[in-house]
Amino acid sequence: MRASLIQIAVDPDEPVDSRRTRVAELVREERGAADLVVLPELWPTGAFAYESFAAESEPLRGPTYEAMAAAARDAEVWLHAGSVVEAVGGALYNTSLVFSPRGELAASYRKIHRFGFDKGEAVMMAAGEELVTVEVPGQLTLGVATCYDLRFPELFRGLVEAGAEAFVVPAGWPERRRTHWTLLARARAVENQAYVLACGTAGTHAGVEQAGHSIVVDPWGEVLAEAGPDEEVLRVTLDPAKVTTTRDQFPALKDRVLGVARPERG
Asked: Domain CN hydrolase: where (predicted)?
């Protein structure tokens, strides 16, 4: 399975419509080179551009949806189009979109863990409630997560229970915590014996320097490819059989104990 992670530079001086057009063309350029293309979190607006969330929000089938559906169809790829600020009634969600090679919506995922503690995304956006997987026929079953989700291993264990063999994690991860980004991506791969495809943004937006360094990790925790700090396309070939082989040769997942009661505090 050939995968391309497009590490988009989010420049606040670039109009959102222009960036949509540019990113759609980058996806089209992967025609014949990739089976799966992955984009970062909130690349239309910037993950830290909180003041723009409401103004740049869109319905699920809004302009980003239309542009990415067309790009997936033209490139004939599975496309994880990163995420958008989705407006639903009076609520906002950080919503990921996954398209089939026909340009059809295969899945959408509303981010469950919102970053910011008592500000930003955590208070401006509603939380998703459903785990989402996508089966790529003849290849891998993808588990979908977003950025801050990476810090919560129980979400990924739930995705494994749902059949995930690879995790796709778009992000807008800050440079100041880049070591956590790499460490957590490898940890999620090792503990779940699954591929991790973590695609971040480059550049600086809302005064926050982005980490870049998109990374692909195999089920044994080995780094297959890692980007630098700037905009680039990271290409890698995944062997779907390696998930089964790793889980068979080191069957740690069979020993997991689910639903253990928490001890009472006295």
From this structure: 1-240
Strand ranges (E), the chain: 2-7, 36-38, 78-88, 91-99, 105-110, 132-135, 141-144, 166-170, 195-199, 204-205, 208-209, 215-217, 223-226, 232-237
**Cα maximum dimension of the chain:** 62
CA distance 227 to 60: 30
Q: In this structure, what are the phi and psi dihedrals at residue 253, rounded to the nearest 5 degrees?
A: -65, -25
- Which domains are assigned to the chain? 2-255 (3.60.110.10)
pLDDT, tens digit, for every residue of 179-188?
999 999 999 9
Contact of 207 with 197, CB cutoff 8 Å: no
- The predicted model gives 185-201 an average pLDDT of 98
- In tens, the pLDDT along 231-253 reads 999 999 999 999 999 999 999 99
Q: What is the pTM of this model?
A: 0.95
Q: How confident is the model at residue 257 (pLDDT cuts 50, 70, 90)?
A: confident
Q: Are 105 and 69 in contact, with CB atoms under 8 Å apart?
A: yes
Residues with active-site annotation: 41, 111, 147
